[in-house]
Design goal:
This is Acid phosphatase. It contains 8 helices and 5 strands. By secondary structure, it is α/β, with parallel strands linked by helices.
């Protein structure tokens, strides 16, 4: 017959042993309860951070602040190598697509590349982000991620050129900066692009989505066929006249937590 515990001592069991047993059971229950609460909190934080990562990117906002609850996920995305995996996988998809088709000989099928993925469009902003990551215990994370992106984009650029694809570089920068931009591209090893498009004074008054859409519309009017658009930022990948394919590169500065395992 099972033993029934009560406030009185049971035969063969001392009151001290009963108290010790009750204390152990209470501690165990508290630990389990705490664990459930902690897991739920982690899940909530993770889901919130995924929203934080997605919202500014889709709405073309600057990701200039990291909520304290998201610091661990933001650092994990780069330090654990997930950003590198995502970037490599995306680059492989781009290379596979263009290796499966042939560039026509008329020179009218072009590939649009975001020049601001090659050259930082806002070095001051990037430096601020690097400083914040260092404060969060991820020294040089942004610098290393940026170096990897530039390395893989350069490799892709050279492969597209070797495949005979005309490359059109689009920038968010002012036309006034064209000479400096050309100099930076050449010093980084880039050459042979078909055209470099930068913003006129009038276009500087447009939002970047409208600017990119307008430029693509002009290309189509001139008989140019857009085979693909490659960028890490949504303003270059939204709107009309996007051509046959768009390729969204992962952006470490928006802290993509989509593949993050909360158990890590």
């Amino acid at each position: 017959m099972p033993m029934k515990w009560s406030g009185r001592s049971q035969p063969g069991v001392s009151p001290v042993e009963i108290l010790r047993w009750e204390a152990v059971m209470l501690q165990s229950c508290q630990s389990k309860s705490s664990g459930v609460v902690e897991i739920q909190k982690t899940v909530d934080d993770y889901n919130g951070c995924k929203f934080f990562a997605l919202y500014p990117e889709l709405n073309i906002l600057e990701a200039d602040e990291i909520p304290s609850t998201c610091q661990a996920f933001a650092i994990w995305y780069i330090k654990a190598g997930q950003y590198a995996k995502d970037l490599n996988a995306t680059m492989q998809a781009v290379e596979n697509y263009f290796s499966s088709i042939t560039s026509p000989n008329d020179g009218l099928d072009v590939v649009l590349m975001d020049v601001d993925d090659i050259l930082s469009s806002d070095p001051h902003h990037t430096n601020l982000l690097m400083h914040r990551f260092e404060q969060f215990g991820c020294h040089d994370c942004v610098k290393e991620a940026s170096h990897l992106k530039h390395l893989l984009i350069f490799r892709l650029y050279m492969k597209l050129r070797a495949g005979g694809w005309p490359l059109v570089l689009l920038s968010r920068r002012s036309l006034i900066q064209k000479n400096a931009t050309v100099g930076h591209l050449i010093s980084a090893g880039y050459s042979g692009w078909t055209s470099l498009i930068m913003r006129s004074d009038e276009e500087l008054q447009m939002d970047t989505c409208q600017y990119f859409s307008t430029r693509r519309a002009l290309m189509q009017r001139d008989g140019i066929r857009i085979t693909g658009v490659i960028s890490s930022r949504m303003d270059a990948l939204t709107g009309p006249y996007l051509g046959k394919r768009i390729f969204k590169l992962p952006n470490a500065l928006y802290y993509n937590f989509e593949s993050t395992s909360i158990s890590e």
